[in-house]
Please model this.
Amino acid sequence: SNAKNILILPGDGIGPEIVAQAERVLSKVAERHNLEFNLDHALVGGAAIDATGGPLPDDTLAKAKAADAVLLGAVGGTKWDGLEMAKRPEKGLLGLRANLGLFGNLRPAILYPQLASASSLKPEIVAGLDILIVRELTGGIYFGQPRGERINDQGEREGYNTYVYSESEIKRIGRVAFEAARKRDKRLCSVDKANVLEVTVLWRNIMNDLAKEYPDVELTHMYVDNAAMQLVRAPKQFDVIVTGNMFGDILSDCAAMLTGSIGMLPSASLNEAGQGMYEPIHGSAPDIAGKGVANPLATILSVAMMLRYSLAEPDAADTIERAVSRVLDQGLRTADIAGSDEQSVSTEAMGDAVVAALEKV
Ligand code: NAD
Ligand code: IPM
Ligand code: MN
Model:
């Protein structure tokens, strides 16, 4: 058959808890839309370290490369924090991104109106918020060489990393961002530190060059420190933000809170072939792991992104997003999005509600 192959990587901490709910949603939406998927599971991160000695087993990487799409929970945890860098759970995730060439990371920050009071900002500041952060994901200071720890001329230990971007790396993420802006409100803000860092002077110049090919999109530039402030001061001034790997990591956690919780933000990580990996932007949340209280909606919304971007099933993606909106209408809240006067439900109860809503929306 021509059923698409989906690889599921639950990972660590709350990863398996939230992915279990996302899988139920995927099965239900497949049933409703008459879609057929082959689901396979593999180990990554700490779970893979414990079972095989390393965070990204060959078998997992091979399955990820062969899959039409990958759904990932989260990796990491205190148990593995003492390991040397190359053996840490996070290297499993970074290795998947690098080996699959997943340079284009889309992180939409959308405020569901039902959650206006869960935002840490005043309702009038966030009402209608709809930002897309386009984060470069396979370059910059995360991957630059040389890196490591060495003894300097003073005989002291020093740690070092390299912040480097090539012209082609900047161009291809720029194109992703301009194309995305073109389909939205046609405003793109490139975030850099061009007042200090040469690598981002090049970034800014290349974004300006690309802008000539996209005359319908308005390009502006902003320094990253100001961007962090503006996101909290007046976030609706942004439509699409494009930025490098580390700035994008930081700004997307900040943007998440505007929507009520980091447990609400999904992501897509795409390569040049359109193959993708889908994951919530949050981590393994060791502080709540095993308690059954994590918010599964970011992972469920990541399934919607997977259906839209890698599986060419936009109607099924819409169905999931409508179902999420419906459960929020019904007042269901996990603890992270519940107000002090509101009851909260478990991860599983939230999953139950989304699955039930899929029948009705
Ligand atoms: P985190 O995102 O795991 O948690 C930060 C805070 O947000 C915690 O208080 C946590 O309880 C809360 N939170 C996160 N997701 C939630 C959810 N779905 N529902 C409710 N609350 C949620 O970040 P951290 O604590 O800095 O990192 C913990 C571990 O996760 C580290 O090992 C880190 O490297 C890893 N991490 C992994 C990923 C990933 O796999 N993509 C992303 C970020 C962090
Ligand atoms: C994320 C995470 C990862 C990152 C870590 C776990 C490597 O924080 O996906 O946002 O920094 O990219
Ligand atoms: Mn992050």
